[in-house]
Amino acid sequence: MIRFRGAAVRRGERRALHPLDLAIIERRVGVVGANGSGKSTFVRLLNGLLVPSEGVVEVLGLDSAREGKALRRRVGFLFQNPDNQIVYPTVGEDVAFGLKARGLGRAEAEARVGAALGRYGLAGFEDRLVHELSGGERQMVALAGVMALDPELLVLDEPTTLLDLRNKGRVMRAVAEADCAVVMVTHDLDLLNGFDRVLVFDEGHLVADDSPHEAIGRYRSLAA
Amino acid sequence: MHRMRPGLKLVLLPVAGTAMFLSQSPIVMASALAGVVLLYLVADFSSHLAAAQLRPAFPALAILFVVQLWFAGMDVAATVALRLAALILLASLVTLTTRMSAMVDVLERVLAPLRPIGVDPAKVGLAISLAIRFIPAVAGVFAEVREAQRARGVERNLLALAVPLIVRTLKMADEVAEAIDARS
Question: Is the pTM here over 0.90, yes or no?
């Protein structure tokens, strides 16, 4: 599903991610590391938002550097801050944005918007103004907008950092119920219980790649 | 009003606005203003809502009235102020009874014939929606920056306010662009 072959990212003189060889077929993969460790760089390679400075990243059989647009149609991405990923003033318009960009007709888009909002506890929110929603509701709107597109892979970059305990639970329940594969960056190690595999990054290197228990143990020892 | 086609409303608005310039009578302008307020009631809005739409413009209307009164007399002052009030209320009524997405759809249809010369109606529509969406967001950033500066005892310092506001807004723009790329 995901394959890195010598993929690295350079930012000026600095290597944000050192050459990495990796293959991922697991359905639930966690990514942890200190701030600036390269984990956000790593996940941004998964949908072609970032292309490798060297090497190749292949996701779902697509080369992220050459087929980025096609890749982004199959990979959903949820960012940390919902405020910066909701682009339309109302909930319904925002969830419909990606659907319209895919060329869906109005009636079908409306049906899928309604279904997505209902699935994430936002039934009837179509005409609500985004800036009047709580942080948790906005993150659920952002998630609905991504999942309405039926991605085959869902990538989440610290999706619960800005949320309280209750809303964290809502987002994680939604992630647990997602049919697609999930790769999630998080600082909240408890959320990785039940994941199949956890990658630990440190200063642009992959320093651990193991079960959640082992990988988190390694991460804790690095952070000590 | 709510069910009227958005395209028709957007055509009638400038037509009505232009028609208001055909008369210089304060009585006709007062009637036009009353007519617009009546439209609010027909649309199931209260007269209080109509007044609320006008409230932000009161200072400007008052200044305009006084200046016109000084230079041109009561009739002209009343005509100009009443006309402007009616226009503001009419435009507000259109936005209150029309979804933003519907207005943007109309705009995209109007711009469609310009595709051969490189105009992308979808991008224009997105730009307008983004501007509307992020007005409260940028206002929120402004409030946060001002609060932070006050907490540090830095008040009335334009640079201390402007620099973090611009930096945070630019960072926000970067992240928004990334989010749009991820979904389009």
Answer: no
